[in-house]
Amino acid sequence: MSEQVFNQATLAKYDGQQGQPAYVAVDGVVYDVTGVEAWAGGKHHGNLAGQELTAVIDGKSPHGRKVLAKLPVVGKYEA
């Protein structure tokens, strides 16, 4: 099975709303945050699932990228 490739429009569909999974992209990798309690409803501290969040996690997140290792990778992101 080939790796799924997301762009801005396809990633936006995975916003954690109305039964959709919640995905976020960081540095070209798309992660599934659906099962993460802090991302319930596709929202986490003002950030929304279905978006590319590299600048947020690098510049504003207190935990940085270390949390990404615990998340399932679902594909890659190409702007």
UniProtKB/TrEMBL annotation:
Pfam families on file: Cyt-b5 (PF00173)
Domain Cytochrome b5 heme-binding: 6-78
SUPFAM superfamilies given in the database record: Cytochrome b5-like heme/steroid binding domain
Gene3D superfamilies xref list: Cytochrome b5-like heme/steroid binding domain
Name of the protein in question: Predicted heme/steroid binding protein
